[in-house]
Amino acid sequence: MTNIAPHPAKSTLQVGFFSAIFMALMTIITFGFAITAIPISGANCMENCIEYPYLNTISQFPKDFQWMIPAIVMMLVYLVFMVSIHLMLLQNKRYLVKLDWLLR
Predict the structure, then answer these.
(1) Which pLDDT tens digit goes with each residue over 53-93?
(2) d(Cα 49, Cα 77) in Å, to the nearest integer?
(3) Interhelix angle 10-35/68-88, nearest 10 degrees
(4) Cα(19)–Cα(74) distance, rounded to whole angstroms?
(5) Which end of the chain, C or N, has fewer beta carbons within 10 A?
(6) What are the backbone dihedrals phi and psi of residue 51, each rounded to the nearest 5 degrees, phi first?
(7) Model's pTM, two decimal places?
(8) How many degrees, rounded to 5, is the angle at CA 27 between CA 38 and CA 67?
(9) Number of helical H runs and strand E runs in the chain
């Protein structure tokens, strides 16, 4: 006999739903920031390139790393999303728990 309810709690479903929506929004925002962080050296550089010793990169510093803050938030939201999925799984579907742990 299992002590797990046949249906997950409503709060677990709500957390999973809202974290999925927030994760999608954070992915779009992070991609928007990351697409503007194209390096100004190497093969992608068309003009005003920075050459090898890369001494002038401090002028690009804030812009190049702005995408990391929303990416960290997105990673934390992903963790909340995966925990909510884990809590939704039933005891008799333990193979899904293994898949859940693989995706982490």
Answers:
(1) 777 667 667 777 889 999 999 999 999 998 888 788 765 57
(2) 37
(3) 160
(4) 10
(5) N
(6) -85, 180
(7) 0.70
(8) 35
(9) 4, 0
